[in-house]
Write a structure and sequence with these properties.
2 copies of one chain form a homodimer.
Chain A (H helix, E strand, L loop, with lengths): L1 E9 L6 H12 L5 E14 L4 H16 L5 E9 L4
Antiparallel strand pairs in A: 1-2, 1-3
């Protein structure tokens, strides 16, 4: 089994109002040195296969078809061997 | 300047209905080998300092005070040198 860890981020050219709101919250806590806050999604999933290439292919397709909006978002992921617990 | 990349995830013991919904979506696309989908948050932020220890301290405090709910969530982060663009 493989575990994929996926990060989906807004493209740099897209405004991130949620990040701006968090940035204001951070400043109001007194952390004036923090800026450029941007919020993305993090997704973990398991792929039931012994073939890492297949796990990577499935992860990429799921990102392209479902998890990321290709107009506004970029994604990256890692795929690692994962023992069932 | 340092850039922090933060991942906030639900604790394993907490049900993740959003992840379950995404899992159903993935299955309905035909990817039956995918399971245990869990959704978290990804946050990028810059810290305006030349001191990595300070950048790490500020990032940790912001996570504890604002970004993560300590009852339900765990967080992890990396802090890396970042050139302004």
């Amino acid at each position: 089994m493989f575990q994929s860890k996926i990060v989906v981020t807004l493209r740099k050219s897209i405004l991130d109002p949620q990040g701006k709101a968090v940035e204001q919250g951070v400043h109001s806590l007194g952390y004036e040195k923090v800026n450029d806050v941007r919020i993305g999604k993090f997704i973990e999933l398991n792929v039931q296969t012994d073939n890492k290439v297949e796990a990577e292919r499935i992860t990429k397709e799921v990102c392209e078809k479902l998890l990321a909006n290709p107009i506004m978002e970029d994604f990256s992921f890692t795929v690692e061997n994962h023992k069932a617990t």
